[in-house]
Write a structure and sequence with these properties.
Blueprint lengths: L1 E5 L6 H15 L3 E6 L13 E5 L13 H16 L3 E5 L4 H12 L6 E6 L2 H4 L8 H10 L2 E4 L2 H11 L6 E3 L18 H4 L5 E7 L7 H12 L4 E7 L4 H10 L6 E5 L4 H5 L4 E4 L8 H8 L4 E4 L14 E4 L4 H12 L2 H19 L1 H17 L5
Parallel strand pairs: 1-2, 1-4, 2-3, 4-5, 5-6, 6-7, 8-9, 8-11, 9-10, 11-12, 12-13
Helix pairs in contact: 2-3, 8-9, 8-12, 11-13, 13-14
Length: 379
């Protein structure tokens, strides 16, 4: 198949999944065309069957905010014609699904461009619900020939808030390359991250308020009072200063390491002993899955799609949002018993591989593409 993929190319879960999907599809013999305003951050190497099409934007004084969605539609239209795309897979509804629909309308009878939209999270639970966007979000979703959601939770939110028929949405979870994300990677950075042999507690996110990074620091402070440990924070965002201030207030600043954005998070996760994800909400929890694939138990909030990824009491522990005490107790239980920590980590790795491995999930996308292409045009 000849597949177009549009995603946000920046540091984030939807872009990471979309890029990995494209790379694996190319490795499986398909021709893949990425269409975006910049090269996806995880597309760092040459691939024989992967092409990148940059959306061209004109800096014109009339436009205070250049109309990216229209420029994207033109790029989609041109790529579909020149590359002979069979299908366009857009990740994140706003504005990608809208641009895809415009591109398909522009093509008219020249080419039957099939559109698959994957819903990832805040495009449905936050941005898409805003009164300025809800009507166009619903319109674009319903005009897609195929719809997927990364969790049953997100499917339910879409059905409820956008009045989309449940049978229109296929749940295909996020996936992980368990050959990349795995325990025992060498070289190991443990000596530099925890030079005193402390346990390594890790958190990776974009440091937005929904991630509750201050809770990460608060949970860690309680853990450190009972188990020698260091906190490694990976990523960056608006709440980083608050997390740093919280570490100062709790007297743990010297045991908190801020690494900023990091392209090879698998190398860091392979060194971790515990992963914290106390989010307000998560449509899936990709960072938790990455940790589990590396054999790292997870302590997370019981919210959104996280319970579909983390099995409470088996691959980690879940607690209510904001319950710092329960999360700290769970973390101590894991870290204080090395045999239990190792057993839980092995279970996490096994669960990630069996249910979310790329070799399990990517064929589901291929099957879904073929079904969408085989269907007649949607009214």
């Amino acid at each position: 198949m000849k597949i177009g993929i549009t995603c946000y190319p920046t540091y984030g879960g939807s872009g990471a999944v979309a890029t990995e999907l494209g790379v694996i599809l190319a490795n499986r013999g398909h021709q893949v065309h990425f269409i975006s305003y910049d090269q996806p951050f995880r597309l760092g190497h040459f691939h024989e069957r992967i092409f990148f099409h940059e959306v061209e934007m004109e800096d014109y004084p009339l436009f205070e905010h250049p109309p990216y969605s229209l420029a994207l539609a033109v790029a989609m239209h041109d790529t579909a014609l020149k590359a002979g795309l069979d299908l366009l897979h857009v990740h994140y509804a706003i504005p990608h699904a809208t641009s895809a629909w415009i591109a398909a309308e522009m093509l008219g009878s020249q080419r039957d461009l099939r559109i698959v939209t994957t819903l990832h999270g805040t495009d449905i639970t936050l941005v898409g619900l805003h009164p300025s966007f809800r009507p166009i979000t619903r319109f674009s979703i319903l005009r897609s020939h195929g719809l997927t959601a990364v969790s049953e939770f997100l499917k339910g939110e879409t059905v409820r808030d956008f009045d989309v028929p449940g049978e229109r949405i296929e749940v295909i979870p996020n996936f992980i390359d368990t050959e990349v994300f795995r325990p025992g990677l060498e070289p190991c950075h443990r000596a530099s991250l925890a030079p005193g042999g402390e346990k390594i507690v890790m958190h990776i996110s974009n440091f937005r308020p929904v991630k509750r990074v201050e809770d990460v620091v608060s949970v860690f402070a309680r853990i450190r009072n009972r188990v020698p440990a260091r906190l490694v924070l990976v990523g960056d965002g608006p709440d980083r200063p608050r997390a740093l201030m919280r570490a100062e207030e709790l007297g743990v600043r010297d045991d908190v390491l801020f690494l900023g954005k990091h392209g090879s998070v698998h190398e860091l996760l392979a060194c971790a002993d515990l992963f914290l994800l106390p989010s307000e909400s998560e449509s899936f929890g990709l960072a938790a899955l990455e940790a589990m694939a590396c054999g790292v138990p997870v302590v997370a909030s019981r919210t959104g799609g996280i319970p579909e990824v983390v099995k409470d009491g088996e691959t980690g522990y879940l607690a209510e949002v904001g319950d710092i005490g329960a999360m700290a107790d769970a973390g101590v239980e894991i870290l204080a018993d090395e045999e239990w920590r190792r057993e839980m980590g092995e279970a996490a790795r096994s669960h990630a591989h069996a249910h979310f491995g790329a070799d399990v999930v990517v064929p589901r996308y291929e099957d879904y593409y073929r079904r969408v292409i085989a269907e007649g045009p949607r009214a």
